[in-house]
Amino acid sequence: MTNYTQHASFYRAALLLGLISGESVVLWADEIIARDADAPVSVLNLAMISPDDLSELRHALFPLAATTESLEVVHALLGITQRDYASKQRDTKDTVTVIRQTRSFLPLPANYHDEIGILQNDHMLAAANVIGDTNEVARRLSNWLAQFAGAESAFLKENVCQDG
Questions:
Q1: pLDDT tens, position by position, 17-42
Q2: How far does CA 101 lie from the centroid of its chain?
Q3: Rounded to an integer, what distance in angstroms lies between the CA atom of residue 39 and that of residue 41?
Q4: Exposed/middle/buried for 85, CB within 10 Å: 0-12, 13-18, 19+?
Q5: In angstroms, rounded to a whole number, what is the distance separating the alpha carbons of residues 100 and 83?
Q6: What local confidence, expressed as pLDDT, does residue 157 receive?
Q7: Is 61 within 8 Å of 32 (Cβ atoms)?
Q8: Helix (H, G, I), strand (E, B) or coil at 90
Q9: Closest by alpha carbon to 74, among 44, 101, 36, 46?
């Protein structure tokens, strides 16, 4: 594992889930280059990609990233999701979409997988006025995400060149 593996895994998955901008990734690469004279060639390549080309950024992160996201990375991704939901940057429907995609694309502990599935199904049923209340689902979603509050801080700008 390189010094940057955890961060590359985080940024790659965060781009996939739509949780960060391409600018964040390029800034991360630029800051590594500024601080590390021995930065991997992959980081140099990453810095040259347009921040708007999310697919190419994800592709460039691949050689730096772990083959499977760690639980720490998953927690950080859910931490961003919690932050965005709590700040109203993302509504309940969009947040349920993000956690559903997290469930589909990333390795999760069985209990997270099950809890997300329940929230997803309950939201779908409540939104269709079949059973349940969307406000109750929103409250439960907020409560579930609260356990991840702040987990993203290990991966964001202030810790840009350290592995979590």
A1: 999 999 999 999 999 999 999 999 99
A2: 10
A3: 6
A4: buried
A5: 17
A6: 65
A7: no
A8: coil
A9: 101
